[in-house]
């Protein structure tokens, strides 16, 4: 028995991206006297700096707190996608918060805390760190969703809070049971115990895994735990919708694959259930989106539908599913953020507008119409845009793991998806004939324009040269180390 | 040079978006002419050999292209018809900026389809060509275009996605390192899986070809497109299904193709007859042409599925030149619309004042219904000759469609161009200027290759024999 005082293993370098973001959050908290614009620009700078520090950590595989915090390539790739989405969201917020009566520095403080929590999820090496990250992210998210002083926003926020906390509670139970069964919180150690059969109680472990699956199901909007999403996404201010439907989702997926890819890959029990949930999500999300007339709600359902496609990557072998997931999430961030950002400058109110109002946009604002069309067609998965490769990669990953029927189902649902994406896209190119629907007109927004153009460039660049990103992501070593290694 | 040939139209399309209006037309036609010249130059050099570079190295996706044989023939026909379509666009379409840009962008997609020797690249080009077609329909279509557009897009993607799964499957199950065709051919998939993968491919090709019962998008697509017929002419270039079958599906899945041969031949023969029968009942020239195209594509399918060298040659010949005369016929319908304001087949008496239009249209129809001496004849005759050696009854069934074609084409023609012009209708002006060339030049091509088929056959035949031998078919 070693009774000497143990000094915790605190390495600063792997924490740097987190600390920079946290510093940004603290700055935003203290900067009440400053104009919101200044705070937001400071926040963007902090995020950029954090991203830069992540790039310097690439291939270093550093850990801190005895493996509780891991800055491996896995964490960094998810972290970078989160930062990209967060910067886009902040850029859009610079133009749209005034109209949404969110124009005060608390917005940035909450936003930056939330991002800090997300990075903690991506960097987590055990269940506790992951949970702390998830809670920081979620708590800030609940407030953001209800920050606007309208009934709709409050209602959405409450709904998000209630269902989100139920999700968290179930997740915590799952963590507790998993700890009970394996005696450890660390992802690597759990995987090792399962591999060597050193599990105290298999029933407990399976129950724990399924409860965690349900908990994460809430967070990523996997059916049947998705019901809150259309209401919350639809009811929240549009810039918050952008944040929730892209950045938060990326982070939740990072946690999902951390837990199920690295701690529980040997456990077959969850993948059978997950398969059914993914299939249900594909059907419900896509058929739900088909019936929406409001463009904002359509995008909300589309976010659910994409959870289904992303779920295919979770089921696959991590070496193929991991890169596919990161690539898809990056493409998803660009195309969804682009579409929602355009929604933000087109909408007459925070409720969004009917799809029919898009008619003839091409003749009023050709540039915006073309970019929105690119976003929608990319969401539908048409080449040569980024979304196509995302789909190809996740299909391939799931196919190789034997989920052929599920891939065929996903393909059929892509046809359904095409119908609801192509309709608004085509409407924009049709001349206005009847005058009953008031067509939308874009309000100017310099920062939003920067965000939109960046998203468009991202979609096209990732579509034409997917190797740019995939080359970085597909070293098998990276995923085996991150997910299988102790 | 092949890469220039492939991407020049797209580059020109991007350039057009930045040019002022008055320059667009000249630049577009110029680019299309240069592109055609590049194609002819490639032809004189005997085509472009296979080149390959990794695209997404880690996942085995390559940029592998080749332009020889049937690919080159179809690419040449495509770039020829692009010039014709563009010339007519400038004359007949108002606000034609988006149209010419789309036509040029689509050209790259189509040429890319014919050049691709990597399945993922093929898929990308296959779908990329869809986007400009949707844009043309959305911007220039008729009142009910939304339904037609969604139907067209959904049908196409339905087939394509099944093909995408097959593409993934053929690489993974065969164990090939890349998606390049030669690697896949070296690592074939055997057994029952081959049949499933073949069916996945067939779904995509049958939508595009189109083959009964996946043809329902076709008539609406043509009916709702711009009356000028330019979008339709591009649409007929779109019939890449037969080509995809020949280059990818049949070589990759030989056993499955042979097992399913009687069934597929039967389906193709039925499509040919069914298309002709429905065409007979149409009173709208565009729908009539759409169903006539369906009927012809049934014959193409019959030729390809026969797995017989003569029939396959005929199928590819028909595929190539059907583009020319059907494309021109769509433009002729556009000219009719420009004069009388509709495309009904019940006009009467167009011949009396618009003799040149009527005469050229009739000659193009002769090419379409396979009158000897015109390009359609060689294709259809070879298909039937070859198919007869494999299955006489199905060849007979398919052959009935050529008789039916004469019936529907001549009946409709008679109603529109002969008969008596109704009292009180406006006088129909005859062709002027570039319109004459738009119809006469494709007709000249149809006549030339109807009389002297060797240059085209030289491109097709060397590739058909080995392909069929590899299949274990032949006669």
Shape verdict of chain A: globular
Shape of chain B: globular
Cross-sheet strand order for the largest sheet of chain A: 1-2
> What share of residues are in beta strands of chain B?
under 5%
InterPro entries (chain B): NADH_Q_OxRdtase_chainM/4, NADH_UbQ_OxRdtase, ND/Mrp_TM
Domain NADH:quinone oxidoreductase/Mrp antiporter transmembrane (chain B): 116-398
Organism (chain B): Deinococcus yavapaiensis KR-236
Keywords (chain B): Membrane, Transmembrane, Transmembrane helix
Give an account of the 3D structure:
The complex is a heterodimer of chains A (486) and B (475). With 486 residues, chain A is mostly helical. Chain A is built from 20 helices and two strands. In chain A, helix 4 runs antiparallel to helix 5 and helix 8 runs antiparallel to helix 10. Chain A starts with 15 loop residues before the first helix and ends with a helix. Chain B is mainly alpha-helical. Chain B has a domain of 216 residues. In chain B, helix 1 runs antiparallel to helix 2, helix 2 runs parallel beside helix 4 and helix 15 crosses helix 19. The two termini of chain B are 39 Å apart. The mean pLDDT of chain B is 88. The interface between A and B is medium-sized, with 35 and 35 residues. Chain B: It is a multi-pass membrane protein. Chain B: One of its GO terms (biological process) is ATP synthesis coupled electron transport.
């Amino acid at each position: 028995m070693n009774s000497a005082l143990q000094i915790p293993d605190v390495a600063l370098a792997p924490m740097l991206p987190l600390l920079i973001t946290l510093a940004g959050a603290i700055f935003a908290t203290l900067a009440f006297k400053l104009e919101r614009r200044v705070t937001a620009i400071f926040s963007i700078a902090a995020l950029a700096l954090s991203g830069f520090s992540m790039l310097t950590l690439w291939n270093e595989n550093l850990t801190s707190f005895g493996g509780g915090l891991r800055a491996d390539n896995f964490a960094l790739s998810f972290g970078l996608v989160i930062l990209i989405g967060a910067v886009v969201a902040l850029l859009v917020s610079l133009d749209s918060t005034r109209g949404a009566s969110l124009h005060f520095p608390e917005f940035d403080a909450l936003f930056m805390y939330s991002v800090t929590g997300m990075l903690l999820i991506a960097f987590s090496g055990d269940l506790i760190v992951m949970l702390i990250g998830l809670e920081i992210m979620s708590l800030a998210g609940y407030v953001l969703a209800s920050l606007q002083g309208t009934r709709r926003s409050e209602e959405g926020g409450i709904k998000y809070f209630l269902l989100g906390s139920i999700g968290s509670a179930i997740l915590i139970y799952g963590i507790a049971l998993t700890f009970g069964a394996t005696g450890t919180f660390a992802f690597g150690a759990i995987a090792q115990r399962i591999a060597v059969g050193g599990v105290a109680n298999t029933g407990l472990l399976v129950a724990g895994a399924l409860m965690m699956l349900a908990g994460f199901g809430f967070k990523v909007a996997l059916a049947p735990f998705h019901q809150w999403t259309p209401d919350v996404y639809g009811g929240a201010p549009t810039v918050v919708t952008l944040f929730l439907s892209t950045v938060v989702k990326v982070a939740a997926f990072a946690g999902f694959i951390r837990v199920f890819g690295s701690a529980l890959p040997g456990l077959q029990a969850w993948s059978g259930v997950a398969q059914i949930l993914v299939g249900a999500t594909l059907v419900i999300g896509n058929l739900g989106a088909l019936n929406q007339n409001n463009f904002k709600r359509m995008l909300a359902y589309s976010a659910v539908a994409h959870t289904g496609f992303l779920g295919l990557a979770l089921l696959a072998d991590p070496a193929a599913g991991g890169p596919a997931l990161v690539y898809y999430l990056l493409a998803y961030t660009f195309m969804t953020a682009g579409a929602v950002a355009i929604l933000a400058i087109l909408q007459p109110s925070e409720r969004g507008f009917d799809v029919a109002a898009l008619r003839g946009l091409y003749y009023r604002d050709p540039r915006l119409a073309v970019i929105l069309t690119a976003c929608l067609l990319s969401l539908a998965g048409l080449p040569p845009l980024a979304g196509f490769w995302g789909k190809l990669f996740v299909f391939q990953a799931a196919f190789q793991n034997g989920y052929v029927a599920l891939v065929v189902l996903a393909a059929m649902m892509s046809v359904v998806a095409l119908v609801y994406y192509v309709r608004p896209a085509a409407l924009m190119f049709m001349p206005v004939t009847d005058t009953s629907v008031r067509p939308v007109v874009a309000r100017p927004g310099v920062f939003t324009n920067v965000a939109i153009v960046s998203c468009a460039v991202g979609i096209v660049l990732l579509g034409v040269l997917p190797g740019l990103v995939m080359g970085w992501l597909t070293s098998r070593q990276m995923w085996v180390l991150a997910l299988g290694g102790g | 040079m092949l890469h220039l040939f492939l991407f020049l139209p797209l580059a020109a399309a991007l350039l057009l978006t930045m040019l002022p209006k008055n320059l667009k037309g000249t630049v577009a036609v110029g680019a299309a002419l240069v592109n055609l010249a590049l194609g002819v130059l490639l032809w004189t050099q005997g085509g472009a050999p296979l080149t390959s570079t990794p695209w997404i190295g880690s996942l085995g996706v390559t940029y592998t292209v080749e332009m020889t044989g049937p690919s080159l023939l179809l690419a040449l026909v495509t770039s020829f018809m692009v010039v014709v379509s563009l010339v007519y666009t400038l004359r007949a379409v108002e606000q034609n900026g988006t149209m010419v840009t789309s036509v040029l962008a689509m050209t790259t997609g189509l040429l890319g389809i014919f050049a691709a020797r990597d399945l993922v690249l093929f898929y990308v080009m296959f779908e990329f060509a869809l986007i400009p077609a949707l844009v043309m329909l959305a911007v220039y279509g008729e009142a009910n275009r939304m339904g037609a557009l969604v139907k067209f897009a959904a049908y196409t993607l339905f087939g394509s996605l099944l093909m995408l799964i097959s593409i993934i499957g053929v690489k993974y199950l065969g164990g090939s390192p890349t998606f390049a065709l030669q690697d896949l051919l070296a690592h074939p998939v055997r057994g029952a899986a081959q049949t499933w993968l073949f069916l996945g491919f067939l779904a995509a090709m049958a939508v595009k070809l189109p083959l009964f019962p996946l043809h329902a998008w076709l008539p609406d697509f043509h009916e709702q497109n711009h009356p000028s017929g330019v979008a339709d002419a591009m649409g007929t270039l779109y019939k890449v299904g037969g080509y995809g079958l020949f280059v990818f599906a049949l070589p990759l899945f030989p056993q499955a193709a042979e097992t399913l041969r009687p069934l597929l031949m039967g389906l193709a023969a039925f499509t040919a007859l069914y298309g002709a029968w429905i065409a007979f009942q149409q009173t709208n020239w565009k729908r009539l042409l759409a169903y006539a195209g369906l009927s012809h594509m049934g014959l193409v399918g019959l030729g390809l599925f026969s797995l017989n060298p003569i029939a396959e040659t005929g199928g590819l010949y028909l595929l190539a030149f059907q583009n020319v005369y059907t494309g021109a016929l769509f433009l002729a319908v556009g000219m009719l619309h420009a004069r009388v304001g509709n495309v009904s087949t019940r006009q009467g008496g167009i011949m009396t004042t618009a003799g040149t239009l009527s005469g050229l249209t009739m000659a193009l129809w002769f090419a379409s219904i396979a009158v000897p001496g015109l390009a359609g004849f060689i294709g259809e005759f070879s298909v039937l000759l070859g198919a007869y050696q494999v299955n006489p009854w199905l060849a007979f069934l398919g052959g009935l469609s050529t008789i039916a074609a004469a019936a529907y084409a001549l009946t409709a023609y008679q109603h529109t161009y002969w008969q008596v012009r109704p009292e009180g209708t406006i006088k129909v002006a005859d062709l002027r200027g570039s319109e004459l060339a738009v119809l006469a030049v494709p007709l000249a091509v149809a006549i030339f290759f109807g009389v002297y088929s060797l240059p085209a056959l030289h491109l097709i035949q060397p590739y058909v024999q080995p392909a069929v031998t590899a299949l274990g078919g032949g006669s």
